[in-house]
Amino acid sequence: MFGDTNLTKVQLLEGVEGVTRSKKVARNTVQYWLADGTECIKYHDTVVVSKAPDGVITLNSGGFRTMTTKDRIWEYGHVTITQRGGIWYMPNGSAFYDGIRVRIEPAKEGEYPGRGAVKIVSDVREVDESKVRTMKARIKKYCDLITPENLPHPKAGDCWYCCMHDITTDKPLGDITGHPHLITHMQERSVNSSLIVNAMQESGFSNEQITAYYFNARSVAGMCLQTIRKAVSKYLQRRLLPGVSVR
What we know:
Blueprint: H1 9-12, E1 19-26, E2 29-34, E3 39-43, E4 46-51, E5 56-59, H2 67-77, E6 82-84, E7 87-89, E8 100-104, E9 118-120, H3 129-144, H4 160-163, H5 173-177, H6 180-188, H7 193-202, H8 207-219, H9 223-240
Antiparallel strand pairs: 1-2, 2-3, 3-4, 4-5, 5-8, 6-7, 8-9
Helix pairs in contact: 3-9, 7-9, 8-9
């Protein structure tokens, strides 16, 4: 799980090519420059801030809308992101989305250098907050279906989009083809065991830990069951509410 790790600079730069210089600047965060002059801030597996030589800054959460991600974007991208109803908003009111591109206007007299007005140079987007609330309610109802009596183990008859993984990326087939099958699971009130395992793995649990949580959720429920439900809730929110902070 993210909170339990503190990756080294070498680990953070694994697989990154063309780096001319670099330094670790914070916990699980590395700053590096590429040969073309692009400056990058990588937090865990995600380049949250990428500053091109022409001044255009690309922002990305990697699907993890956390307070730390937001802090990294503020500190190194100089963009203030606010949150309302779980939705991230840019300074001009546009909804934040991964890949949004901005340019920082020169600071006016008396302003802190580098903290000028933020101008969005890609699409400006809006989010229907009522639809977000509705989807969150649907996800909660689905997660509440997971009980000690309704906690199946993965099996051959599971949804193929959940149980089959791409051999190159190891992503579930549903992540590659889209997520309408997740809506179907909620409509049919079908607890999918492979979906649960995928969700817990994405939250950082090892297979041994998942087995332990399964066993304890069946026997004593309580915290273990809530942990499983929370992992599934986050998993669904990241896919069905990609522009919303996950809780």
